[in-house]
User: What shape does this take?
Amino acid sequence: MPYQSPVGEFRFILDAVVPLAPLAATERFGEATPDMVEAILEGAGRMCDEALAPLSRVGDQTPTRLENGVVRSAPGFKAGFSAIADGGWVAVAASAEHGGMGLPQTLNMVVNDMMSGACLALQLNALLTQGQIEALEHHASDEIKNLYLPKLISGVWSGTMNLTEPQAGTDVGALRTKAEPLDDGSYAITGQKIFITWGDSDLTENVCHLVLARLPDGGPGTRGISLFMVPKFLPDADGNPGVANTLKVVSLEHKMGLHGSPTCVMAYEGAKGWLVGEKHKGLAAMFTMMNNARLAVGVQGVGVAEAAYQMALDYARERNQMGPIINHADVRRMLATMKAEVFAARAIALGCAVALDMGRATGEADWAARSALLTPIAKAYGTDVGMAVSETCVQVHGGMGYIEETGAAQFYRDVRVTAIYEGTNGIQAMDLVGRKMMDGGEAAFRLLQEVEDNAEAARAMLPQLAGDVWAAAETLREATEVLLAQGMEDRFAGAVPYLRAFARILGGHYHLRAAVAEGGKGPRSALAAVYIRRLMPQYAAALAEAREGAEGLFALSPEDLAH
Ligand SMILES: Cc1cc2nc3c(=O)[nH]c(=O)nc-3n(C[C@H](O)[C@H](O)[C@H](O)COP(=O)(O)OP(=O)(O)OC[C@H]3O[C@@H](n4cnc5c(N)ncnc54)[C@H](O)[C@@H]3O)c2cc1C
Assistant: This one.
């Protein structure tokens, strides 16, 4: 059976697990009524199932090509992107002022989840365009906003993000691309960028590049970087694509997966660009957008995991080996684990999105701190789940999983990069234990208190599950106190296991809420038991590792590692 958007699952989560209702009660998001939510779920779900899902295999089997310097996308991708654009799905959360729907990011993430499950390679184009829209909304001059936003929001033009250079990956501050002021107030951008997703496309009339570069008076490191809008075609007096800018795609990378999405080496050769935001503050401008992009990449992991789970479930029902394989305990274990993980990662991501929206709607600092805390967890756990579930999908298929014909392996190849781009998962974990704990753990402790209160309230109905979640939250509270007393190097050494433990316990929390919502008996409660009794206990091992600090790791020198 082809991919089917899990519309009912979103309905349940937004109703009972991370309720959207408080958001709809705010002035800013008053339009997010149950009717509107239903229309979004149904409309986007149908578009994903009908227009996008058939393209995923096509993109894998007919990779994008570079022809005379121009990217040619896979057959059907243009129509697929039009379906996204025409439905308004690029701009669910973009401001209504320039043609967006002005709805909460939470609904945008729901749509991104479905688009990612249907066709990740194409969704990536919309995702980057969304990021660019957000960066422009917050930082661009009115002139740039009026010129670019309506075209980006309607999907007539698309957007890219240009940070990475050969010597500047995680260390963005090492970038060398230059920007020189021109007499007319614009800038000449010169340099090479690598790994630029959808750096060119035949899906849209223009491709707008947001490029990080250094002005002549920009100091070294991250503080001297500025952000520029550098379009493929310079807009003419009427705002239509005019003459070609002096930039080009040098080559496309050959990748492990995501063959439908071109990953470009870009050369900017004195290309004309316009400053976005303040001089030397480009990285900060990029970061306002990158937080949402991080959450959205976590959601990509969830979407792919959903699709991989659906495929594995179908196969397990049909394949017979001493009876249908779905009846073997180990296969049942794999399927139940996949389903439980997808639910947990999705709830964490949507919990983060609701906090983000509540922060924006109410201006309350606690909500902003909550979403900031949850963002690295949602990104890393969502993409870890994407990898783990798609890997298990291969295993459920047995030998057929390793044969490309089934499409099972594609999920794993495609999703693998989500743990790498938009800040590797290691960097996310360091963000959690570093920057996100600069409040002395206040946001984390507040969240853990809610987890414990929720567990207390569930104790009468589900004593064992509630007790397990309560005890886990208490252990995490103690581990967080230990972490806060550690130096940064020790924290960083344990960052990844600490983040994983945090995610496990939040997963248990949301599963418990789901079980309570159905009265403590039924399939959601059974799934909650699978998660809380079988998967959540991994937190203890993860915290044991997190407490170990750095010393033991550095006891092995590079020379020791070589022997
Ligand atoms: C398919 C694909 C699409 C991409 N799309 C885009 C795009 O559209 N725009 C764009 O600008 N970039 C894009 N990227 C680049 C991507 O964001 C980078 O690959 C990523 O930021 C990591 O940088 P790097 O590859 O140089 O790895 P490195 O920075 O060299 O990292 C290598 C390893 O070292 C670790 N590491 C590095 N520094 C530290 C540190 N300080 N502490 C602890 N660990 C550290 C990393 O976690 C990683 O495990 C894309 C990459 C790929 C593969």
